[in-house]
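Quick note —
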Amino acid sequence: MSERQVYTRIEKLGEVLRPFIRRGPRNEILLDGSGLRILEELHEREKLGKTLHEAVAELKAELRRSSPIAPGAPPSSEVAGNPNANANGDGLSTAATAEAATHGNGSSLVAILRAQIEELRRDKEALLEQIRTKDRQIDQLNARLSELTTLLHNQLPPTPQEARERRWWKFWK
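Predicted structure written out below.
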């Protein structure tokens, strides 16, 4: 993506990216990790064939839909059982809430973090399933190796020591 294309996307996302943008030396635009993730998501949607306008509208709508519980609302039962939940009832630790507050628009940050957590959970489950599959394959291969070792041992000629220990009359026994 060219520099101009990045500027255009930052401009189009406006209020969505504002909490994640700060200015650096010589007035450079600096995005934190969450802002960069939003831009990457926008880029992925464009790669799927959406126009810039459609992708921006879809992303904004999704971020609005996934906003956390309204302020002052009682915490849900899932948050109530969470020892890391804070007084806002959004399930984040106080450090994460402080981080969201420093950005000004904590709701979009919380929505992004929740999406990232869910994605990591899915990835974790997929990896655990791969590990289980590999463990089953290893068990099957170990069993097969044991069978083949036994078969090979039976097919090999006797070692010189075994031949010496074997007496000529053992043939008729």
